[in-house]
Amino acid sequence: MKPVYFDNNATTRVDPRVVEAMLPFFTEQFGNPSSMHAFGANAGAAVNCARGELQSLLGAGHDHEIVFTSGGTESDNAAILSALEANPRRREIITSAVEHPAVLSLCAWLEKNRGVRVHVIPVDSKGRLDLDAYEAALSDRVAIVSVMWANNETGTIFPVSQLSDKAKAVGALFHTDAVQAVGKIPMDLKSAAIDMLSLSGHKLHAPKGIGALYVRRGVRFRPQMKGGYQERGRRAGTENTPAIVALGKAAALAALSMAQVNTRVRGLRDRLEQGLIQRIGHCFVTGDPDSRLPNTANVAFEYIEGEGILLLLNKEGIAASSGSACTSGSLEPSHVLRAMNIPDTAAHGAIRFSLSRDSTDDEVDRILAVMPDIVDKLRGISPFWSKEGAPQAFDPAYA
Ligand code: PLP
C-alpha cells in the first residue's frame, strides 16, 4: 500500500517542478554567480530571479532584503548574533518558551557564555503568548525580540505584527522564525515592523540545506560568515545556485496556490481531528483553535506513549511525529507542550499530523481507520488504564 506521509512540518517532498527548475544549474548552467562571463551571468541572473520570487511571497519592499543561507537554523543564529553585535550596549533578548531549539539553544548559550540576559516569555494552555509578561520584559536594554510566527508542533500562530510594533517602541529589533509559516499563510512585510525573518526551503517543497534571512532595509547587519562579498557582504561563500533556484521556484508555486491549498488542507485537517475525537475517547487537540496553521493537527491521546503510536502507525505505512524527545534515557514530553502545562499523561501521547498540498481524503481515511485499534492496543498495556477500559491511578504491577 502507498505510504502516507503526514509529517510535513518535519520536512516536505521536493516538488517535481522544483527539481526540474534546479537541474540545469548542476550541468549546463553551472557557473559561479560572481564570475564575469556568460556562465556566471546566467547563474547570477537565476539567483536574482529567485530573490524576486521570495520578495513577492513575503511581500517585502525590495529584493535586496533577501539573504540566502543554509536554512532556518543559520538564519535564526545570524539574526540574533547580528543584533547583539550591532547594538553592543543592549545586552538583553526576549524570546518565547516554545521556540525551536535553533533559537532557544542559542539563547541559552548566550546567557551562559556571553552574559546576555534572556527573557523567556511563557504561553498559556493554548500556546498563546503571555502579552503582559512580554510588555513587562520590553525595555531599552533589549537588543532583539525573537518570537516565532507559527509553532512547529501545535501550529499556533503568534500576533507578530502587534509584537513587532511593541518592540519598535523601545528601539529593539524584531526577528521572527517564520520557518513554519512561510508559504502557508499570506505575508506582507512591507506593512509590518518586522526587521528580520527566517525561512527554510525544505518546509515548502524545496530541498534541505537552503533558506533565507529577510533583513529589512536600514537594519544594521553584522555578518557571521566572513569572506567574499556574496549576498552584498551579508553571507560570504559561493552561492548554492541550484538550491537557490529551487527555493525561488518553490516560493512561486506556494504563492500561486496558497489560498486554494489552504482551504483544502484545512478541510482535511479538521476532518482528521474531528474523526479522531469521535472515534477515540480521552483525546484532545492542542494549540490555539482560533489562530492555527491550516496544515497542523497536534492531538494528545491520554494515558499512552507517543512513541508507541508512531511505531504502530509506521507498521501501517503511516508517518507522523511525536512531540516527545528521548532525553538521557527517559521519555520527556516536548518543551512546547510542557510550556503549555499540558498534563504529562496527555503530553506523552501527543502526535503531530502535519499535512501538505499532496495530502488526500483517502489518506485521512486510512489514519482514521487504524488509530482506534492502535490506541486500544496501547491502553491495554498502559499502567494508567484499567482492565475495564477507563483511566486509573498508576498501577505499580506494570512498573
Ligand atoms: N525553526 C523552526 C520553527 C523549525 O520548525 C525548524 C525545523 O524544523 C527550524 C527552525 C530549523 O530549520 P532548518 O532545518 O532549515 O535548519
CATH class category label of the largest domain: Alpha Beta
Number of alpha- plus pi-helical segments? 11
The arrangement of helices and strands along the chain is EHHEHEHEHEHEEEHEEHEEEEHHEH
The secondary structure category is alpha/beta
Major pleated sheet: 7 strands, mixed
Query: Which hetero compounds are present in the coordinates?
Result: pyridoxal-5'-phosphate
**What is the architecture of the largest domain at the second tier of CATH?**
3-Layer(aba) Sandwich
> How many structural domains?
2
Helix content: 25-40%
Low-pLDDT residue spans:
none
> What distance lies between the first and last C-alpha atoms, to the nearest angstrom?
37 Å
Description:
This protein has 399 residues and is an alpha/beta fold. The protein folds into two domains: 4-8 and 258-398, Aspartate Aminotransferase, domain 1 (Alpha-Beta Complex); 16-254, Type I PLP-dependent aspartate aminotransferase-like (Major domain) (Aspartate Aminotransferase, domain 2). 38% of the residues lie in helices and 15% in strands. The protein has helices at 16-22, 38-58, 72-86, 101-114, 131-137, 160-169, 241-279, 306-315, 335-339, 344-347, 361-380; strands at residues 4-5, 66-69, 92-96, 117-121, 142-146, 173-177, 196-200, 211-215, 283-285, 296-301, 318-319, 321-322, 325-327, 330-332, 350-354. Strands 2-8-7-6-5-3-4 form a seven-stranded mixed β-sheet, sandwiched between helices. It has a four-stranded antiparallel β-sheet with strand order 9-10-15-12, with helices on one face. The two termini are 37 Å apart. The structure holds pyridoxal-5'-phosphate. The site of pyridoxal-5'-phosphate has 12 residues, from helix 3.
